[in-house]
Amino acid sequence: MRNTWPVLVVLGAIAALWYLAVAPMNIRGALDQAERAGAVVAPETPKARQEVSVWRLMIDNPDHIAAGYSLDRPRLPTPVQVGEELWKSTVGMALRGRAMSKRSLIYHGWVTLQATLWGFLLGTAVGILGAVAIVHWRVMDMSLMPWAIISQTVPIVALAPMIIVVSAQIGIEGRAIPKAIISAYLCYFPVLVGMVKGLRAPTVSQIDLLKTYNASALQGFLKLRVPASLPYLFTSLKVGIAAALVGTIVGELPTGAISGLGARILIGDQFGTPLAIWAALVAAAILAGVLVTLLDLLQKITLKRMGFRQ
Amino acid sequence: DPVKLQLKWVTQAQFAGYYVAADKGFYEEEGLDVTILPGGPDIAPEQVIAGGGADVIVDWMPAALAARERGLALVNIAQPFKRSGMMLTCWKDTGISKPEDLANHTLGVWFFGNEYPFLSWMSQLGISTDGKSENGVEVLKQGFNVDPLLQRQADCISTMTYNEYWQVIDAGVSPDDLITFKYEDYGVATLEDGLYVLEENLEDPAFVDKMVRFVRASMKGWKWAEENPDEAAMIVLDNDQTGAQTEKHQKRMMGEIAKLTSGSDGTLDPADYERTVRILLAGGSDPVITKEPQGAWTHAITDKALK
Amino acid sequence: MNALVFALVFWLGAWALNAALARSRWHATRPVRIFVPVLFGVTLLVLWEGIVRGLDVSPVILPAPSRVAQTFVVSTDTLWLDFRQTVLKGALSGYLIGCIAAFLTAIAIDRSSFLTRGLLPIGNFVAALPIVGIAPILVSWFGFDWHSKAAVVVVMVFFPMLVNTVQGLRETDPMQRDLMRTYAAGYLQTLVKLRLPAAMPFVFNGLKIATTLALIGAIVAEYFGSPIYGMGFRISTGVGSLSIDLVWAEIAVAALAGTVFYGLVAWAERLVTFWHPSQRG
Amino acid sequence: MTETNPVISARNLDLVFQTNDGPVQALKDVALDIEKGDFVSFIGPSGCGKTTFLRVIAALEHPTGGTVTVNGMTPDEARRQRAYGYVFQAAGLFPWRTIARNIKLPLEIMGFSRAEQDERVERVLKLVDLDGFGEKYPWQLSGGMQQRASIARALAFDADILLMDEPFGALDEIVRDHLNEQLLALWERTGKTICFVTHSIPEAVYLSTKIVVMSPRPGRITDVIESPLPKERPLDIRDTPEFLEIAHRVREGLRAGHAYDD
Amino acid sequence: MTETNPVISARNLDLVFQTNDGPVQALKDVALDIEKGDFVSFIGPSGCGKTTFLRVIAALEHPTGGTVTVNGMTPDEARRQRAYGYVFQAAGLFPWRTIARNIKLPLEIMGFSRAEQDERVERVLKLVDLDGFGEKYPWQLSGGMQQRASIARALAFDADILLMDEPFGALDEIVRDHLNEQLLALWERTGKTICFVTHSIPEAVYLSTKIVVMSPRPGRITDVIESPLPKERPLDIRDTPEFLEIAHRVREGLRAGHAYDD
Ligand SMILES: Nc1ncnc2c1ncn2[C@@H]1O[C@H](COP(=O)(O)OP(=O)(O)OP(=O)(O)O)[C@@H](O)[C@H]1O
Ligand SMILES: Nc1ncnc2c1ncn2[C@@H]1O[C@H](COP(=O)(O)OP(=O)(O)OP(=O)(O)O)[C@@H](O)[C@H]1O
Ligand SMILES: [Mg+2]
Ligand SMILES: [Mg+2]
Predict the structure, then answer these.
(1) Closest in B40, B48, B51 to A257, CB measured
(2) DSSP result, D86-111
(3) Rounded to two decimals, what is the model's pTM?
(4) Percentage of chain E exceeding pLDDT 70
């Protein structure tokens, strides 16, 4: 916990910078608003203001800087505005007993979480099976590994609509499964790479040791490779779940527009409500933080019980 | 009977008729079990119907005809929207007062099938879209909001009378600062939200019968919505899964939509169709469609449904 | 159906050949190491072609690779224009700016253990976030052209790169640092002669992660507004106008570009960290 | 040492590794007989093939020429009959298993019953002076204790032959002395045949009944020294003239074989 | 050995590490004088503070009590004057530099001219028998050669004091013997003062003019043995009674300090 203090200080610095940045980012909006309300600003027309730098505008119109901190549609909202919006759409909704209403970020977070978890399960399963195959069969290693890397260079966003259409054709209803597939597509790779490393972690002498016991391949796998790979597995699971969340949100951006945090971001963009975007972003960040922390905890407990030194 | 309807866009009053029909039990009365699938920025209804994900789709005619030319035989079976709601909204202070003034400006345009009317309009005006010049405009693929206009990244943006235009107004802009060009007024309007199905399905009498009932119920929904715009807007709001739509906005949208649907009983007016085709064929160097489409519409359904 | 049967037979044959090659004593030679994955890729394409033809899949849903190839050849002009816009301007410039900025930041904060301890957990956290979500915000800040795409890429690659570099800079073993102290070496000397070289494997790890992020970022950002060219633009509008073959051609370009990009970084890594056990293999 | 049937017998043993830089002859024309109950030390410069020879006996490497028999069988058959325990240089305990479960590992694999496993673990832990440490994890033990645990693991399934490859290489001299004493006592008590690789001349002389001196590239046996020292060996024996004489002979043998090019 | 002004002088040296488990007293009340040209070996059980003592001399650790002077200065001043070369247990060569450039490293840092650098590299490579290997990378050399390269690196800038922390710990006995001989020759030729940590009794006795025996926890000096052996020492000297007697005394000293608890 010796990091607590530095982290707090850095966070404080980030918040301060954020606050400072709000002024120049929002000055144009604030001046437009003031002008419409009848105030005199310099220069007078929006078109003329286009030609002037924000710093100039701030110097010429010091009275209107403050207004930039309370715009309805700010280019950059203040942390407090974001916090309020987040509060309103989560706890605020929950307090009114509408936690699962469609206007609540808790509901959308839940939708995203579900798809993420399914994608994570699927991706982890594929990653682990792939790793086992790669470690056990050289053909797999030689043919699969390069393609695993190439697969990650394919822009998954482009495939998203097609995945939906194809899965609809196969008879899969709804968006949950296509989203999970996209999420799994991003998630499997770190798991695969980590597990290949992990399953290959046993040293030659450990493998030889089992040979002197005349152990079967299965025994070698269960008693040596699997336990030796666990620390690697957990590390890559943490990367994997973060990737799964990215996948879900990417999957929700172009294909969703229905529910989920990605859809909220999209809709927020569509209706020009930046606060909604920011709130959804923060909610996604919190979700990612919680998921990774949970896995981290699981890792600590498991490895401790297994006797790995901390 | 189950029917899956793929919308062109997200749940909003633009599709009020269908939601009303579902909510008020009009579909049920016809013995239909209708699932309404909202669309989104990257959902191509044509692709969905090609993949068997929907029985009937809401689409704009330019996109449908383009798909038809690409080998996906879509047929218009009903046209609830009589008029086009598309327009170009510009800042007055940019000096634009008539379409010819657009040259040498930056314009935001929607793509994804919605660009066709724009392109043919420009080619009619003789304005190229390759970039800013004496005789050309710079085209941006506009996102889904009106920020490009508000932040003056574009001088004009595409808006719908029922949606984006009001977002601009809601942002505090006075209508006096704006100048709008309705496609309808310049004779370049193409048919918007119509109902389309796959041609091959129309050979199946059972499917035709299903569509007849569907169109009948849907039009009933539309007419109800026209008469009760506020309630219709609330129904739409209840069906919005994103939870992002606001009551005020939807009510106003419903009012505007009603203007577009009024005057249509669902039957496609062949004259409108001819005009759309003509506009599209005139798409300049890169026309949307290259030849007169055949069999792209039918009155078979509406004739039965509206009798 | 014939096409499908042929594809399946081809698949079995190719797999058997690959298996035999992998078991043979030439498996470690260079040609075999290249041939096996290539044959595997070809098999995938043949299988795809076979399925599309055999099952008569509509081209607006999934075009056959042969058709995609045709489109690719026909529309090289468009593809090149888009490639320049998205990869060269958007992704590459963002990648360079982001990675260099992260690298310099890492060196700057590394001098203060306080800052490092404060920034590292935050950097780790941010690196795990779905940063693509900020694309709409950055597009509205930086406009429609490639600048906003580059900005998205900068933000996406910054944190993974930062975290890796900071980690790398801490990676020298205490003995090596003590050695430099016995020489009474200054900060800069220690940095240049010990810590930077020692950090290189980590730096390249960050650079490699960043390559795939850069492409995704640039393409996703184009979904939220772009000029009327660019790979993301073409892909999103291509789906709308049912030119799915063009979409796949763009995907192929993206995969190709990504692979080459990754390959270049991996190649540079081999050159720079030739001394690292993982490279000596 | 009254048997005449050697437990391990190598004849004209050759082993060539195919490497990227061409073939490496690790063993050349090696011939050796090891009797039941022998304590044989292998000593020789780095890379001379000591480890390789042990691995051939354990069927972890296959000779490219000549023959080896273990108890009259091929090494592979002997391996399948679990004829030996192998102790590696590093203790090589699995960090995720307690000491007791580490020792159980071979027993589980060989299918001993639960009760038998517990009983044997108990017994060998006592044998190596580790009773009470069964529930500890390897990293909670010192290096010397870990090394003893790994010996216990090799003893647990009662193999007749113990192959030990520099088991005490990583330990400091005092601890090493202590383990040497214990290993000698254990050898006396159990009468096992032990093959022991070391780099330390005093260690080899102190422990062995037979010292095999090897020369590098290609690995060859240059000298086999039968030790005249009694079975009973206090540590002080290392200061006696007999001891020093053998040590001297070993050193000379080593020096002769050491083409100085390291 | 005629000087009276000690090169290194420690008085009442205390060093306590603050660790998570409470304070660890690594050195307690250590007093030692080292004269110019001495070859001092430090021997003692693991963890007794040998490394710590060397690090204190090199100003890599700061004592919590008492004083040390190096050439009459504080260790820190001596460090800034580049008074010593430090050779670590592992060779610690930078893998991204060739052997020659590794040896150049301190010269670059200390600002020697290009020509001077080349000349010195040439010279020390010869000194440690590595001429011709300058352009190789560390991993292309055997362990013994790497260790010699690291000694060359410490010699390159002509420090008067050489601090060596178990430099040959990882090598086999023959290579070690060889390096010992070379080190002795080098010491004689250059007249440097050398502090040498080892775990091997024969090594300590063979090399040193002075053997410092330490006891663990808290690290204390239990015995300082002045060696009566002549400067000229063939390897055979290790079989002489004088040698054995000193070795015996060292072993007794070690044994006494070794609380047997491993
Ligand atoms: N798997 C292998 N492939 C190629 N060469 C090998 C292999 N194993 C050992 N060698 C080579 O065979 C020779 C003998 O190696 P071995 O490990 O038996 O030596 P050693 O006497 O045990 O040495 P050390 O004392 O360093 O352990 C060495 O030259 C080594 O490089
Ligand atoms: N940086 C440190 N922090 C805390 N304790 C330390 C530190 N360095 C050494 N110690 C402790 O100080 C004691 C002396 O350590 P030192 O490394 O000097 O022993 P040593 O004699 O060199 O042992 P070895 O023979 O194993 O190298 C040990 O108990 C060790 O655990
Ligand atoms: Mg060996
Ligand atoms: Mg030490």
Answers:
(1) B40
(2) EE-SS----TTS-HHHHHHHHHHHTT
(3) 0.85
(4) 96
